[in-house]
Amino acid sequence: MESGEKLSPVTLAYETYGTLNAEKSNAILIAHAFSGDAHVSGEGGWWNGIVGGGKGIDTDKYFVICSNVVGGCQGSIGPSSTNPKTGKPYGTDFPIVTIGDMVNAQRHLIDHLGIERLLSIVGGSMGGMQVLQWMAAYQNRIRSAIPIATTLKHTPQQIAFNEVGRQAIMADPDWQNGNYYDSAGPAKGLAIARMIGHITYMSDTSMAEKFGRRFRADCAPKFGADFEVEGYLHHRGDSFVKRFDANSYLYITKAIDYFNLLNGHSLGSIFSGLKAKVLVIAFKSDWLYPASQSQEIVKACKLSGVDASYCEINATYGHDSFLVETEQEGRLISSFLRSLSNGGS
Length: 345
What we know:
Layout: E1 14-17, E2 27-31, E3 51-52, E4 57-58, E5 63-67, E6 82-83, E7 88-89, H1 99-112, E8 120-124, H2 126-137, E9 144-148, H3 156-171, H4 187-201, H5 204-210, H6 228-241, H7 246-258, E10 277-283, H8 291-303, E11 308-313, H9 321-324, H10 326-341
Parallel strand pairs: 2-5, 2-8, 3-4, 8-9, 9-10, 10-11
Antiparallel strand pairs: 1-5, 6-7
Helix pairs in contact: 1-2, 3-4, 3-7, 4-6
Protein backbone atom coordinates (compact mmCIF):
# COMPACT_ATOMS: atom_id res chain seq x y z
CA MET A 1 0.00 0.00 0.00
CA GLU A 2 1.14 3.59 -0.51
CA SER A 3 1.03 3.97 3.29
CA GLY A 4 3.80 1.38 3.59
CA GLU A 5 1.50 -1.25 5.09
CA LYS A 6 1.09 -4.63 3.43
CA LEU A 7 -2.20 -6.29 2.53
CA SER A 8 -2.37 -9.96 1.67
CA PRO A 9 -4.08 -11.91 0.25
CA VAL A 10 -5.99 -9.47 -1.95
CA THR A 11 -9.28 -10.33 -3.61
CA LEU A 12 -10.45 -8.16 -6.52
CA ALA A 13 -13.97 -8.62 -7.87
CA TYR A 14 -14.39 -7.82 -11.56
CA GLU A 15 -16.71 -8.32 -14.51
CA THR A 16 -15.93 -8.37 -18.23
CA TYR A 17 -18.13 -7.75 -21.26
CA GLY A 18 -17.48 -8.45 -24.92
CA THR A 19 -14.57 -10.41 -26.38
CA LEU A 20 -10.85 -9.71 -26.15
CA ASN A 21 -9.43 -9.79 -29.68
CA ALA A 22 -6.41 -11.84 -30.69
CA GLU A 23 -4.09 -8.83 -30.48
CA LYS A 24 -5.51 -7.92 -27.05
CA SER A 25 -5.82 -4.36 -28.32
CA ASN A 26 -9.52 -3.65 -27.75
CA ALA A 27 -9.61 -3.64 -23.92
CA ILE A 28 -11.26 -0.76 -22.06
CA LEU A 29 -11.06 -0.49 -18.28
CA ILE A 30 -13.91 1.36 -16.59
CA ALA A 31 -13.31 2.76 -13.10
CA HIS A 32 -16.39 3.19 -10.94
CA ALA A 33 -17.36 6.16 -8.79
CA PHE A 34 -17.55 6.24 -4.99
CA SER A 35 -20.42 3.84 -4.31
CA GLY A 36 -20.21 1.83 -7.53
CA ASP A 37 -19.18 -1.77 -8.17
CA ALA A 38 -18.00 -4.08 -10.93
CA HIS A 39 -21.47 -4.48 -12.46
CA VAL A 40 -21.33 -1.71 -15.05
CA SER A 41 -23.65 -3.08 -17.75
CA GLY A 42 -26.83 -5.11 -18.11
CA GLU A 43 -29.80 -5.21 -15.76
CA GLY A 44 -28.94 -3.16 -12.69
CA GLY A 45 -25.65 -2.01 -14.22
CA TRP A 46 -24.66 1.41 -12.92
CA TRP A 47 -23.67 2.67 -16.41
CA ASN A 48 -25.95 0.56 -18.55
CA GLY A 49 -26.87 3.60 -20.64
CA ILE A 50 -23.26 3.89 -21.82
CA VAL A 51 -21.89 0.33 -21.83
CA GLY A 52 -23.38 -2.47 -23.93
CA GLY A 53 -23.97 -3.69 -27.46
CA GLY A 54 -24.34 -0.73 -29.86
CA LYS A 55 -23.93 1.81 -27.03
CA GLY A 56 -21.31 4.51 -26.42
CA ILE A 57 -18.84 1.91 -25.21
CA ASP A 58 -19.87 -0.85 -27.59
CA THR A 59 -19.31 -4.32 -26.15
CA ASP A 60 -19.74 -5.74 -29.67
CA LYS A 61 -16.43 -4.01 -30.50
CA TYR A 62 -14.58 -3.67 -27.22
CA PHE A 63 -13.59 -5.91 -24.33
CA VAL A 64 -14.78 -4.02 -21.25
CA ILE A 65 -13.43 -4.62 -17.75
CA CYS A 66 -14.73 -3.14 -14.50
CA SER A 67 -13.50 -4.01 -11.01
CA ASN A 68 -14.65 -3.11 -7.53
CA VAL A 69 -12.02 -0.96 -5.80
CA VAL A 70 -9.78 -2.05 -2.94
CA GLY A 71 -11.48 -0.79 0.22
CA GLY A 72 -14.91 -1.44 -1.22
CA CYS A 73 -17.65 -3.81 -0.12
CA GLN A 74 -18.91 -5.31 -3.36
CA GLY A 75 -16.60 -8.32 -3.60
CA SER A 76 -13.14 -6.76 -3.42
CA ILE A 77 -11.12 -6.74 -0.21
CA GLY A 78 -12.18 -4.05 2.24
CA PRO A 79 -12.90 -3.38 5.92
CA SER A 80 -15.71 -5.96 5.98
CA SER A 81 -13.40 -8.72 4.67
CA THR A 82 -11.95 -11.33 6.99
CA ASN A 83 -8.55 -10.48 8.44
CA PRO A 84 -6.54 -13.75 8.16
CA LYS A 85 -4.63 -12.84 11.33
CA THR A 86 -7.74 -12.68 13.50
CA GLY A 87 -10.42 -14.60 11.61
CA LYS A 88 -12.71 -11.57 12.05
CA PRO A 89 -13.58 -8.63 9.78
CA TYR A 90 -10.79 -6.06 9.51
CA GLY A 91 -12.97 -3.14 10.59
CA THR A 92 -10.74 -0.13 11.25
CA ASP A 93 -7.65 -2.38 11.33
CA PHE A 94 -7.83 -2.24 7.54
CA PRO A 95 -4.96 -0.09 6.20
CA ILE A 96 -5.59 3.36 4.78
CA VAL A 97 -6.42 3.16 1.07
CA THR A 98 -5.48 5.65 -1.66
CA ILE A 99 -6.54 6.16 -5.26
CA GLY A 100 -3.02 4.98 -6.11
CA ASP A 101 -3.66 1.70 -4.28
CA MET A 102 -6.89 1.20 -6.21
CA VAL A 103 -5.10 1.75 -9.52
CA ASN A 104 -2.16 -0.48 -8.58
CA ALA A 105 -4.63 -3.29 -7.90
CA GLN A 106 -6.26 -2.68 -11.29
CA ARG A 107 -2.84 -2.87 -12.94
CA HIS A 108 -2.35 -6.33 -11.39
CA LEU A 109 -5.75 -7.33 -12.81
CA ILE A 110 -4.76 -6.14 -16.29
CA ASP A 111 -1.52 -8.14 -15.98
CA HIS A 112 -3.55 -11.19 -14.89
CA LEU A 113 -5.68 -10.87 -18.04
CA GLY A 114 -2.54 -10.71 -20.18
CA ILE A 115 -3.25 -7.21 -21.50
CA GLU A 116 -0.14 -5.16 -22.17
CA ARG A 117 -1.85 -1.92 -23.16
CA LEU A 118 -5.40 -0.70 -22.65
CA LEU A 119 -7.21 0.92 -25.53
CA SER A 120 -8.74 3.29 -22.97
CA ILE A 121 -9.32 3.92 -19.28
CA VAL A 122 -12.67 5.60 -18.55
CA GLY A 123 -14.34 6.85 -15.38
CA GLY A 124 -16.38 9.61 -13.76
CA SER A 125 -16.07 11.29 -10.36
CA MET A 126 -13.83 9.05 -8.20
CA GLY A 127 -13.52 6.88 -11.31
CA GLY A 128 -12.12 9.94 -13.06
CA MET A 129 -9.50 10.27 -10.34
CA GLN A 130 -8.43 6.70 -11.09
CA VAL A 131 -8.19 7.63 -14.79
CA LEU A 132 -5.92 10.57 -13.90
CA GLN A 133 -3.78 8.28 -11.71
CA TRP A 134 -3.37 5.89 -14.66
CA MET A 135 -2.38 8.86 -16.85
CA ALA A 136 0.36 9.80 -14.38
CA ALA A 137 1.55 6.39 -13.15
CA TYR A 138 1.14 3.96 -16.06
CA GLN A 139 1.58 6.09 -19.15
CA ASN A 140 2.86 3.24 -21.34
CA ARG A 141 -0.08 1.00 -20.46
CA ILE A 142 -2.84 3.18 -22.01
CA ARG A 143 -3.59 4.42 -25.53
CA SER A 144 -6.24 6.87 -24.36
CA ALA A 145 -8.05 8.19 -21.30
CA ILE A 146 -11.48 9.69 -20.61
CA PRO A 147 -11.74 11.45 -17.21
CA ILE A 148 -15.29 12.65 -16.58
CA ALA A 149 -16.64 15.14 -14.00
CA THR A 150 -13.57 14.90 -11.81
CA THR A 151 -10.63 16.84 -10.39
CA LEU A 152 -6.87 16.76 -9.88
CA LYS A 153 -7.38 17.33 -6.15
CA HIS A 154 -10.17 17.97 -3.67
CA THR A 155 -10.93 21.50 -2.56
CA PRO A 156 -11.54 22.30 1.14
CA GLN A 157 -15.28 22.44 0.41
CA GLN A 158 -15.27 18.96 -1.15
CA ILE A 159 -13.33 17.59 1.83
CA ALA A 160 -15.77 19.32 4.19
CA PHE A 161 -18.82 17.56 2.72
CA ASN A 162 -17.11 14.18 3.11
CA GLU A 163 -16.10 14.95 6.69
CA VAL A 164 -19.70 15.70 7.69
CA GLY A 165 -20.71 12.30 6.30
CA ARG A 166 -17.92 10.55 8.18
CA GLN A 167 -18.86 12.27 11.42
CA ALA A 168 -22.50 11.22 10.98
CA ILE A 169 -21.37 7.59 10.82
CA MET A 170 -18.93 7.78 13.72
CA ALA A 171 -21.44 9.66 15.90
CA ASP A 172 -23.88 6.76 15.60
CA PRO A 173 -23.45 4.68 18.81
CA ASP A 174 -23.95 1.54 16.71
CA TRP A 175 -20.69 2.25 14.85
CA GLN A 176 -18.78 0.86 17.87
CA ASN A 177 -15.42 2.15 16.62
CA GLY A 178 -15.87 0.10 13.46
CA ASN A 179 -16.44 -3.23 15.22
CA TYR A 180 -20.14 -3.60 14.42
CA TYR A 181 -20.18 -6.66 12.17
CA ASP A 182 -21.89 -8.86 14.76
CA SER A 183 -24.72 -6.33 15.13
CA ALA A 184 -26.97 -4.09 13.03
CA GLY A 185 -24.30 -1.45 12.48
CA PRO A 186 -24.60 2.36 12.22
CA ALA A 187 -27.62 2.41 9.89
CA LYS A 188 -28.83 5.88 10.92
CA GLY A 189 -25.41 7.45 10.61
CA LEU A 190 -24.74 5.87 7.22
CA ALA A 191 -28.17 6.90 5.93
CA ILE A 192 -27.53 10.52 6.96
CA ALA A 193 -24.11 10.44 5.31
CA ARG A 194 -25.71 9.26 2.08
CA MET A 195 -28.40 11.95 2.30
CA ILE A 196 -25.72 14.63 2.61
CA GLY A 197 -23.77 13.18 -0.29
CA HIS A 198 -26.81 12.85 -2.51
CA ILE A 199 -27.65 16.54 -2.15
CA THR A 200 -24.24 17.36 -3.64
CA TYR A 201 -24.84 15.00 -6.57
CA MET A 202 -27.96 16.87 -7.74
CA SER A 203 -28.51 20.50 -8.74
CA ASP A 204 -30.96 23.17 -7.62
CA THR A 205 -32.63 22.98 -11.04
CA SER A 206 -33.01 19.20 -11.05
CA MET A 207 -34.40 19.20 -7.50
CA ALA A 208 -36.88 21.95 -8.37
CA GLU A 209 -38.03 20.03 -11.45
CA LYS A 210 -38.26 16.70 -9.64
CA PHE A 211 -39.83 17.82 -6.34
CA GLY A 212 -40.62 21.54 -6.23
CA ARG A 213 -42.14 22.37 -2.85
CA ARG A 214 -44.70 19.58 -3.12
CA PHE A 215 -45.90 17.81 0.01
CA ARG A 216 -46.09 14.04 0.33
CA ALA A 217 -49.49 12.42 0.01
CA ASP A 218 -49.24 10.57 3.33
CA CYS A 219 -49.38 12.42 6.61
CA ALA A 220 -45.95 12.76 8.19
CA PRO A 221 -45.45 13.15 11.97
CA LYS A 222 -44.30 16.47 13.38
CA PHE A 223 -40.80 17.23 12.00
CA GLY A 224 -41.17 14.23 9.74
CA ALA A 225 -40.52 14.04 6.01
CA ASP A 226 -43.56 15.99 4.81
CA PHE A 227 -41.95 17.50 1.69
CA GLU A 228 -41.39 15.18 -1.27
CA VAL A 229 -37.69 16.03 -1.38
CA GLU A 230 -37.35 14.98 2.26
CA GLY A 231 -39.04 11.66 1.59
CA TYR A 232 -36.76 11.10 -1.38
CA LEU A 233 -33.61 11.70 0.69
CA HIS A 234 -34.88 9.34 3.41
CA HIS A 235 -35.50 6.68 0.75
CA ARG A 236 -32.02 7.13 -0.73
CA GLY A 237 -30.43 6.88 2.68
CA ASP A 238 -32.38 3.80 3.75
CA SER A 239 -31.74 1.93 0.49
CA PHE A 240 -28.01 2.75 0.61
CA VAL A 241 -27.67 1.15 4.04
CA LYS A 242 -28.84 -2.18 2.59
CA ARG A 243 -26.00 -2.37 0.05
CA PHE A 244 -23.01 -0.48 1.45
CA ASP A 245 -20.65 -0.89 4.38
CA ALA A 246 -20.20 2.08 6.72
CA ASN A 247 -16.47 1.48 7.18
CA SER A 248 -16.00 1.38 3.41
CA TYR A 249 -17.71 4.77 3.33
CA LEU A 250 -15.09 6.10 5.75
CA TYR A 251 -12.14 4.58 3.91
CA ILE A 252 -13.19 5.50 0.39
CA THR A 253 -14.13 9.10 1.17
CA LYS A 254 -10.72 9.50 2.84
CA ALA A 255 -9.05 8.10 -0.28
CA ILE A 256 -10.88 10.70 -2.37
CA ASP A 257 -9.90 13.50 0.01
CA TYR A 258 -6.24 12.43 0.09
CA PHE A 259 -6.07 12.38 -3.72
CA ASN A 260 -3.84 15.20 -4.97
CA LEU A 261 -2.16 14.54 -8.28
CA LEU A 262 -0.28 17.83 -8.05
CA ASN A 263 1.19 17.17 -4.59
CA GLY A 264 3.96 19.72 -4.97
CA HIS A 265 4.39 19.21 -8.72
CA SER A 266 3.73 21.90 -11.31
CA LEU A 267 0.59 21.69 -13.44
CA GLY A 268 2.70 21.23 -16.55
CA SER A 269 4.70 18.30 -15.21
CA ILE A 270 2.15 15.77 -13.92
CA PHE A 271 1.41 14.32 -17.38
CA SER A 272 4.85 14.92 -18.86
CA GLY A 273 5.73 12.13 -21.28
CA LEU A 274 2.15 10.92 -21.72
CA LYS A 275 1.48 9.90 -25.34
CA ALA A 276 -2.12 8.86 -24.84
CA LYS A 277 -5.01 10.77 -26.39
CA VAL A 278 -7.33 12.33 -23.80
CA LEU A 279 -10.99 13.35 -23.78
CA VAL A 280 -12.12 15.39 -20.76
CA ILE A 281 -15.89 15.68 -20.18
CA ALA A 282 -17.63 18.04 -17.75
CA PHE A 283 -21.23 19.07 -17.03
CA LYS A 284 -22.39 22.66 -16.78
CA SER A 285 -24.67 22.10 -13.75
CA ASP A 286 -22.12 20.07 -11.74
CA TRP A 287 -21.31 22.13 -8.65
CA LEU A 288 -19.61 19.30 -6.74
CA TYR A 289 -16.92 18.90 -9.42
CA PRO A 290 -17.40 22.11 -11.41
CA ALA A 291 -16.31 22.45 -15.02
CA SER A 292 -13.41 24.69 -13.94
CA GLN A 293 -11.74 21.65 -12.36
CA SER A 294 -12.05 19.69 -15.62
CA GLN A 295 -10.61 22.68 -17.48
CA GLU A 296 -7.60 22.55 -15.16
CA ILE A 297 -7.06 18.92 -16.24
CA VAL A 298 -7.09 20.03 -19.88
CA LYS A 299 -4.62 22.81 -19.07
CA ALA A 300 -2.29 20.30 -17.40
CA CYS A 301 -2.48 18.12 -20.52
CA LYS A 302 -1.82 21.01 -22.88
CA LEU A 303 1.15 22.24 -20.82
CA SER A 304 2.61 18.71 -21.07
CA GLY A 305 2.03 18.49 -24.82
CA VAL A 306 -0.72 15.87 -24.46
CA ASP A 307 -3.36 15.58 -27.21
CA ALA A 308 -6.43 16.55 -25.18
CA SER A 309 -10.00 17.53 -26.10
CA TYR A 310 -12.61 19.10 -23.83
CA CYS A 311 -16.39 18.79 -24.00
CA GLU A 312 -18.83 20.47 -21.61
CA ILE A 313 -22.38 19.11 -21.69
CA ASN A 314 -25.28 21.41 -20.87
CA ALA A 315 -27.17 19.02 -18.56
CA THR A 316 -29.28 19.97 -15.53
CA TYR A 317 -28.78 16.93 -13.28
CA GLY A 318 -25.71 18.25 -11.45
CA HIS A 319 -22.89 15.83 -10.71
CA ASP A 320 -25.18 12.85 -11.37
CA SER A 321 -25.36 13.97 -15.01
CA PHE A 322 -22.50 11.64 -15.90
CA LEU A 323 -24.67 8.70 -14.81
CA VAL A 324 -28.05 9.80 -16.22
CA GLU A 325 -27.36 12.11 -19.20
CA THR A 326 -26.02 9.23 -21.22
CA GLU A 327 -27.18 9.99 -24.78
CA GLN A 328 -24.88 12.92 -25.61
CA GLU A 329 -22.14 11.58 -23.36
CA GLY A 330 -22.28 8.23 -25.13
CA ARG A 331 -22.01 9.83 -28.57
CA LEU A 332 -18.91 11.79 -27.50
CA ILE A 333 -17.24 8.69 -26.08
CA SER A 334 -18.15 6.57 -29.10
CA SER A 335 -16.75 9.13 -31.53
CA PHE A 336 -13.57 9.46 -29.50
CA LEU A 337 -13.02 5.69 -29.42
CA ARG A 338 -13.63 5.45 -33.19
CA SER A 339 -10.90 8.04 -33.73
CA LEU A 340 -8.44 5.71 -32.01
CA SER A 341 -9.23 2.81 -34.32
CA ASN A 342 -8.91 5.17 -37.31
CA GLY A 343 -5.23 5.78 -36.69
CA GLY A 344 -5.27 7.89 -33.53
CA SER A 345 -2.35 7.75 -31.11
